[in-house]
Amino acid sequence: MEISELYEIFKKHPVVTTDSRNCPKDSIFFALKGESFDGNAFAAGALEKGCAYAVIDEKEFAVKDDSRFILTDDCLKTLQQLANFHRRALGTKIIGVTGTNGKTTTKELIAAVLNKKYRVHYTQGNFNNHIGVPKTLLQLTKDTEIAVVEMGANHPGEIKMLTSIAEPDCGIITNVGMAHLEGFGSFEGVVKTKGELYDFLRNNGRGPVFIDANNEHLTGMADGLKQIRYGLGCMGEDVSVGGKVTGCRPYLEFTWHRSCGCDHLVRTHLIGSYNVYNMLAACCVGHYFGVQDLDICDALANYIPSNNRSQLEKTEHNSLIVDTYNANPTSMMAALTNFRDMEAENKMLILGDMRELGEASGEEHQKIVDFIHKTKFENVMLVGSEFAKTNHYNYPVYHNVDELIEMFTKEKPENKTILIKGSNGIKLFRLPEVL
Predict the structure, then answer these.
(1) How many Å apart are CA 155 and CA 164, to the nearest integer?
(2) What is the pTM of this model?
(3) Are 82 and 6 in contact (CB under 8 A)?
(4) Is the pLDDT of residue 308 over 70?
(5) pLDDT band at residue 176 using 50, 70 and 90 as cut-offs
(6) Which 3 state secondary structure label does DSSP give 267?
(7) Share of the chain above pLDDT 70, in %
(8) Where on the phi/psi map is residue 157: left (φ > 0), alpha (ψ -120 to 50), or beta?
(9) How far is CA 285 from CA 169, 196, 282, 385, in A?
(10) Where are the beta strands (DSSP E) in 24-115?
(11) Count of beta carbons in the 10 Å neighbourhood of residue 398
(12) Cα 187 vs. chain centroid, distance in angstroms?
């Protein structure tokens, strides 16, 4: 079956699922494969549960003379091709978002701002990979005016592949930093892969790019592209939006201005002064797309984070800054620096390992512990095998979160302001319920 033929079926059944446990009536099931499962084995069951069609790539799983089974060479590639076909058919304006840190928050802030003027669809959660991006595109409708599509990567070439599916019209790289070094091999590998978004825009005559004017890595990578610039303390005709942090007690407050406008004060619900870059990016994109200044301010002031990203949680016993979705050396150092400067009493640190750092892991974890020691944080708890290998200055180290939870059942902290940060795999997200 040609993609154009499959697209005619999709137009009549415009809901796609890859999970046989979630089969909306009249949807299309794509039988994807994973390390421990083969979606083909669940295709018949998906049809029984309500799917109209099942796309498979192993013919032995098709029922003879049942036209609801659609056989293809590769279900994943077919899903991606269908998404690209749909994207082209609609012609929706697409903003691509990637970066080492802040891409999910930036994506949500941009969407919140653009929603003030346009009908916007955006990547839900962090479904930003080779499956999530196609599924996001297939959720677009004729009514969608702008889509904000997040693109993640942990290996070279992944952003190139995702841009070939989404074909963004413009884009933003939030930053480049030390993350997923196990897959990228080096910081240079990170830069090259994130820069594949710029490469697509440059090679296909697209643009502009929204860019942090203070980031030398990004400005150097963006040669040949129209650049819409933003940044801290930035002024001048070549900068669209500038701003500065005015407070972080503990929520970020900042002012921003257009090149020819007055200052606007925004009080946010985000923890961490480092989030000002994400906020200014959203201001810049909103201004470019004609959103009124006061609407931009309102959208940013009312954005409330979720998914354990820069969240403040007050329990019966403590105030928690929960940032447990992800961690890498760049984001960890930013969180620690912000926590050091934050106005709060009885500070406490609970840090978990940073995953996927490869050969650099030992060095990067030691840098974090050295910074903690130099900064004179006193109440510190470390979790994970990588922190255990460091010279940790007698800070207590727990092999896993279960050990820490067991300790807290016997001796719970009281009246503390606690920063909780680590990679998702360390499972520090389990701690708030016991603190």
Answers:
(1) 16
(2) 0.88
(3) yes
(4) no
(5) confident
(6) strand
(7) 96
(8) left
(9) 13, 20, 5, 41
(10) 28-30, 53-56, 69-71, 93-98
(11) 19
(12) 19
